[in-house]
């Protein structure tokens, strides 16, 4: 009898200790019968555990392996024609929840890729709705899809994810992998300032509170190469991608790495988890010719869904010995055609060369309805203070979509644009515009880039 009590007490202690953990990292390989490691050596646990609710699900195997698709976690999936729920114990506070999808035929054609249509919810939040993974992958010209959300885990320390087929019996729901990783509050907590809402001529502070969930739309290592999750800082396992496909037209400026004897030094206002040193060690500037720079904007275009607020985080760090003092390189930042910053002197804001600085803005993309829209982020030299260089630069950019007042984060499925046979990935059409010495091109981005952002490899 005494030993039973002891066992109960031990179990109780174990559960309490688990829920009181301060950070969580779960990697679940859905549909797998045993734990296995991916190519980065990360171990993914099988989902044959208490985490899964419904008995009517199947552990399914993909019929084909696309060359770009890793075996773990993509070649197995949890599938069902009725709703199923994963329940996780996770540390209270903000966590990234990443969902991994490989839209393939499963179980020898029993389930075809195009029949998957489902929603994913977490408490009051709708993460995906009528999600058609195969058309989403087609539109982004990738074989697999990762979606990253940031949710607040309540104090009870439980996270539930519900996968529901949109047409029960006819369509099915599936998921290949689930990752949950704790992250400090990213916006406006404690010593850090809240983002600035660009509200025509009246910018105001915008608080992203713990009740608001958000989804990563883009995370760019500007002027550098894509970084895999293992290269990220703070144990957050984020993917950073090359920014060049997002640049408007032919005016791509110049990308460069830090001068060899420059070191990246994080100030107390920029904790290391904000972005890894690799992000601050490369940048893109407009170029060496002041006359050309004065004639154009260095512009990134990110495809977004209308009807949501977006947070844009810009990462800056001067990493060239030519720009170590004040009033060397000063520029304006425009977001969604609104002035976000006038006279930005990175050295002045960061405190010196090699010191990272970041700043957050919020814009509402309304455009009167649903559907795909373009978010423009543009840089232009500011000449008012007569700086030494008429130039502008950027090291990194992140774009996050905030849930709407109904707790929704889902947008419509993308439309697949007609592509020329044999063409792969984004298509760029050069159009010369009159009265512009740069002969800027018009980038056809649209839905093609929609998911490119989170699919590395
Ligand atoms: C599989 O991974 C889970 C979670 O990391 C762990 O608790 C479990 O012990 C592992 N199982 C085996 C057989 O290694
Ligand atoms: C997903 O989209 C594709 C392409 O538009 C379509 O053929 C397919 O029927 C859709 N699937 C469902 C279940 O609606
Ligand atoms: C770094 O190298 C540059 C030349 O590339 C030189 O001007 C500068 O003095 C060096 N700085 C340090 C701290 O070594
Ligand atoms: C740069 O962008 C701003 C904001 O959209 C616009 O007002 C300005 O005319 C643009 N400048 C050039 C040279 O394209
Ligand atoms: C921003 O300005 C560009 C031209 O400078 C234009 O093509 C684009 O539609 C504008 N976007 C918005 C939201 O007004
Ligand atoms: C996001 O959804 C939650 C839950 O419905 C709500 O409390 C919160 O206010 C929403 N956030 C925004 C920015 O609308």
TrEMBL record:
Its main location: membrane. Keywords: ATP-binding, Glycoprotein, Kinase, Membrane, Nucleotide-binding, Receptor, Serine/threonine-protein kinase, Signal, Transferase, Transmembrane, Transmembrane helix. It is found in: Membrane. Residues 28-401 form the Malectin-like domain. Residues 34-68 are annotated as: Disordered. The keyword Kinase applies. InterPro entries: ANXUR1/2-like (IPR045272), Malectin-like_Carb-bd_dom (IPR024788). Transmembrane segments: none annotated. GO terms for cellular component: membrane. Residues 46-62 have a biased composition (Low complexity). Residues 1-21 form the signal peptide. GO terms for molecular function: ATP binding; protein serine/threonine kinase activity; transmembrane receptor protein tyrosine kinase activity. The keyword Membrane applies. It is a single-pass type I membrane protein. This is Receptor-like protein kinase FERONIA. It comes from Acorus gramineus.
């Amino acid at each position: 009898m005494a030993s039973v009590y002891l066992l109960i007490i031990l179990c109780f202690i174990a559960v309490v200790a688990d829920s009181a953990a301060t950070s969580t990292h779960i990697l679940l390989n859905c549909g797998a019968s045993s734990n296995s490691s991916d190519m980065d050596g990360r171990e993914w646990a099988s989902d044959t555990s208490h985490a899964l609710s419904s008995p009517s699900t199947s552990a399914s195997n993909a019929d084909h392996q696309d060359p770009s698709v890793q075996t773990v976690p993509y070649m197995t999936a949890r599938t069902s024609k009725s709703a199923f729920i994963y329940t996780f114990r996770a540390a209270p506070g903000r966590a990234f929840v990443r969902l991994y999808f490989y839209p393939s035929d499963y179980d020898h054609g029993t389930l075809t890729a195009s029949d998957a249509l489902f929603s994913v919810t977490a408490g009051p939040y709708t993460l995906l709705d009528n999600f058609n993974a195969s058309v989403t992958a087609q539109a982004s010209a990738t074989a697999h899809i990762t979606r990253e959300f940031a949710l607040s885990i309540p104090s009870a320390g439980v996270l539930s994810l519900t996968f529901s087929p949109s047409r029960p019996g006819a369509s099915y729901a599936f998921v290949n992998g689930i990752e949950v990783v704790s992250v400090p509050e990213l916006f406006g907590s404690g010593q850090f300032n809240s983002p600035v809402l660009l509200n025509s001529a009246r910018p105001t502070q915008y608080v992203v509170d713990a009740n608001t969930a958000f989804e990563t739309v883009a995370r760019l290592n500007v002027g550098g190469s894509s970084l895999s999750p293992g290269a990220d800082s703070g144990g957050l396992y984020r993917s950073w991608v090359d920014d060049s496909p997002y640049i408007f037209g032919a005016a791509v400026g110049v990308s460069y790495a830090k001068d060899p004897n420059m070191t990246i030094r994080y100030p107390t206002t920029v904790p290391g988890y904000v972005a890894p040193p690799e992000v601050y060690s490369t940048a893109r500037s407009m170029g060496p010719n002041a006359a050309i720079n004065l004639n154009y904007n260095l512009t990134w275009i990110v495809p977004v869904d209308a009807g949501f607020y977006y947070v844009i985080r810009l990462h800056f760090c001067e990493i060239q010995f030519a720009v170590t003092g004040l009033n060397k390189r000063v520029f304006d930042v425009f977001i969604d055609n609104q002035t976000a910053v006038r006279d930005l002197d990175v050295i002045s804001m960061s405190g010196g060369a090699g010191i990272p600085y970041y700043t957050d803005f919020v814009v509402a993309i309304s455009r009167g309805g649903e559907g795909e829209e373009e978010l423009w982020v543009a840089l232009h030299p500011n000449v008012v203070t007569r700086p030494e260089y008429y130039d502008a630069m950027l090291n990194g950019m992140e774009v996050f979509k905030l849930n709407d007042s109904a707790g929704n984060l889902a947008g419509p499925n993308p439309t697949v644009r007609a592509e020329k046979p044999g063409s792969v990935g984004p298509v760029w059409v050069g159009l010369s515009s009159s009265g512009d010495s740069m002969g800027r091109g018009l980038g056809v981005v649209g839905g093609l880039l929609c998911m490119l952002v989170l699919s590395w490899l």
